[in-house]
Design a protein that fits this description.
The protein has three helices and seven strands, in the order αβαβββαβββ. The chain is α+β, with helices and mostly antiparallel strands and 155 residues long. It has one domain: 2-Layer Sandwich (STM4215-like). Strand 6 (130-132) and strand 7 form a beta hairpin. The longest helix is centred in the middle third of the chain and has 16 residues, at 89-104.
Length: 155
Amino acid sequence: MITNPLSLGRKALVQHLMSVTVGNGHITNAGQNVKTGWFNEVMSSDEVGFPIIVVQKAKDLPPKRGPDGHISQVGFYVIGAVDVGLDNYEDSLDDLQVDLQRALITSEGQPAAWLPFRSGITRITVGAPEQFPPGNGERAATVLIPVHLHTVIER
């Protein structure tokens, strides 16, 4: 059976984010609450808990051609959210951002050990995080981190 490297990359990202727990050296236990889908739909659920990590599909970057196929740069938003009120959300949101960056960014020159290299996912590119305060109908403060999984797709 042929496996789809796009699906494998997404599943590996979700699985890795589930490791964001205090027991694994992080500040938060956000990894105990990882969801996929559109952030606003996940947040509208009556059963949503905090902190939460949502992996939402984002725009891919243009593919790069290679001799035997191409490299797709598959985009996702990793969105972390906390619900601690309007007055004191900054520290909690900073804690979650640090946890997500520690989970996603490797030391320079080091590959991300959690990526399924044998399936063609060769590296991750992490963009600049952006924080959003609660308000305008949103009860949670959020941090959005764009990522791209570099995925080899053979002919």
